[in-house]
Amino acid sequence: MTVKLCVIKGRPAGKSLAFPAGEYFIGRGAECHVRPDSDWVSRQHCRLRVTGDNAFLKDLGSRNGTLVNGVLIGREQQLKDGDEVQLGPLVFRVQFDDSPVPAQVDVLLQNTPAREGATAELPAVPADGVG
Hints:
mainly beta
């Protein structure tokens, strides 16, 4: 199974990242797999964990929190198809997909107009899940 995070708030809307089984860190830090460039996102904001048939998201003590369907999460929370995940000004829709992961997905995002000039770079996620 692959988990896709599709941009529904932010630019460019409709772009997505695919995550095969593995563990992925999201934050501004260079060590993170997904690096939004926004002051509203912590250096290590949250962790996405994808297993064979489930996906889990955990906030890593971020200053502004991680929201799933508008609710702040603390402990690891199981994600469902169609859930909305918000990290600062970026909102993603969760999609579960059983098709193979493309070799690479590159996306360049710009945050919502409230944070004009800020960008979020979502680097490619390799098919083997190793960053």
